Amino acid sequence: MIGYPNKKSLPIRHEVKDNYMGRGMSLEDDLNKSNEYYLETERALIHKKPIPVQIVRVDYPQRSSAKIVEAYYKTPSTTDYNGIYRGKAIDFEAKETKSKSSFPLKNIHPHQVKHLQRVLDHGGIGFVIIRFCTFDETYLIDAEYIIKHYFQKESKSIPYTDIKTNGHLIKQGYTPRLHYLDVVDQCYFKEEACE
Amino acid sequence: MIGYPNKKSLPIRHEVKDNYMGRGMSLEDDLNKSNEYYLETERALIHKKPIPVQIVRVDYPQRSSAKIVEAYYKTPSTTDYNGIYRGKAIDFEAKETKSKSSFPLKNIHPHQVKHLQRVLDHGGIGFVIIRFCTFDETYLIDAEYIIKHYFQKESKSIPYTDIKTNGHLIKQGYTPRLHYLDVVDQCYFKEEACE
Predict the structure, then answer these.
(1) Fewest beta carbons within 10 Å, which of A10, A99, A151, A160?
(2) CA atoms in the 13 A half-sphere facing the CB of B138
(3) Segment A23-43, tens digit of pLDDT
(4) Which domain holds residue B48?
(5) Is ipTM > 0.90 here?
(6) Under a CB-based contact definition with an 8 Å cutoff, are residues A153 and A106 in contact?
(7) Nearest-CA distance from B121 to chain A in Å?
(8) Is residue B15 part of a domain?
(9) Which of the residues B47, B84, B117 would you substitute to probe the A interface, choosing the one with the greatest number of A C-beta atoms within 10 Å?
């Protein structure tokens, strides 16, 4: 189970909006809207997976409704997004950071990196989308690049400049908010690989 | 949100084991074990998606732990299982019925049927796995067959005999418990389609 650190040790109750902890117009939000747009325009079939939760107790306050009264976050065993694009299985994780200098690798769970390796092994397209909030820049980085850095013991983060060089800047707009499939086209559906 | 009908109208508290409401060695359980086996033997990368839950309130009883104290089940917008097999995107729903005569189509949400149609449109492999508990028989039925029946207004269920004829019996064993990828091989990786 994931522990969410909190400054006070007494119980604190938080209201959760849309399963997302108040970060405004978040990367998750942008991706969900973009995926909706891609779905409606029949360009791709990509969904965010639900947050994995271990349900322990359920109440039935009314005949027709169930209320979960005890549940815990579980560590995700896969990435958050997957689906189908141009006949290929597509799978990715999305993370944002407030850092100006680098992307901290601890933001990604080891399980997720292992999962991305498996995606590649089984013939899927795998990548990570990273947003540097301060610069409002969002990059697509091929899974292989992330995997390589993740398992180098000495590297705890990937410098911003390296992501700028090795990743692919995603154009932002209104519909879709993130034109990330254009980058996928360019990286995975051309003769040259995404390097 | 999904309503789970209950006989009494006063609040009743249920303990939930493994997110599954006490049906013993369930189809879900068998599929999860089979998918684990397929994952370990590197044959396929298929996962069950987490149950979609709308999280409303979270407590932090300790500095390092989060406890969800109010959440509700959401209607799933996709099927439960997806992944990659032999380079292809694979997507399916699994249902069991105690009926001896037919599979009730109300067991599948309209969203899920629409999703399966999209899986086919985007070039994926889509199907439904149906278990007739009484006979301990589990069938793989191609998505097209299910979609066709689902949207026929007059049909509220698919007769067992039709599933026996048009579906494909999945061999059961120990590892994996359900040899369903053998049926996938036979149906989707041969020159003839799965009819």
Answers:
(1) A10
(2) 22
(3) 447 999 999 999 999 999 999
(4) 27-188
(5) no
(6) no
(7) 9
(8) no
(9) B84
